[in-house]
Amino acid sequence: MYSLFIDTHDKDIVITLFKDGKVLSSNIKTSERHHSDYTMPMIDNILKDNKLTVHDLNELLVVNGPGSFTGVRLGVTIAKTLAYTLSIPIKTITSLETLAISNKSKEDKLVVIHDIKGVYGAIFKDDKLDGEIFYKSNAEYAEMDKEKYLIIEDETLDMESIYEYMKNIEPTIAHKVNPLYVKIIEALKND
Of the N and C termini of the chain, which has fewer Cβ atoms inside 10 Å? Predict the structure, then answer.
């Protein structure tokens, strides 16, 4: 079974191809603002390098946020389009979950992703979300009581652990997959 993982939530675009739960190939490209230029060619290249086409894929795995507004929308849209046109299942995982799972510590974790004005964050106990995903401004985050948690701000993704975790996520149909936006975009704040 071939599974394709797509993550475009941050500056690193991560495309990973699994065969029966094992990483067959992975490609990471850092791009500050040009995810749309690189994501589809990366998918095409990873499939060609493994002598596959999109028709060989059995499922799509996608990070649905939080993160870069445009980056999240891009990855989710590509995954939804592929899942719909190929009639294959799709599963979502948050960017914060990928970081929590990739860190092997059993401590309670505060996982955060920084942007210019603040952080997306969540608390994980036993690698399960404890409470709600939040967005705090830099000032609010500075005031937050963080001493009882292992703070995870940057973590090399452990793709096989992420795949194992996602085996327990129920697949859905493409039309039900949506980006996860935690903070209100500036244009909507005044409404």
Answer: C
pLDDT tens sequence across 111-141: 999 998 999 999 999 989 999 999 999 999 9
Largest CA distance in the chain: 52
Range of the domain at 137: 2-189
For helices 35-49 and 69-86, what crossing angle results, to 10°?
40
- Nearest-Å Rg of the Cα atoms of the chain is 17
Single pTM value for the model: 0.93
- Residue 89 burial (CB < 10 Å; 0-12/13-18/19+)? middle
**Token pair for residue 61?**
């795995």
Is the Cβ–Cβ distance between 156 and 100 less than 8 Å? no
Q: List the helix and strand counts (H, then E) for the chain.
A: 6, 10
Tokens of 69: 């507004």
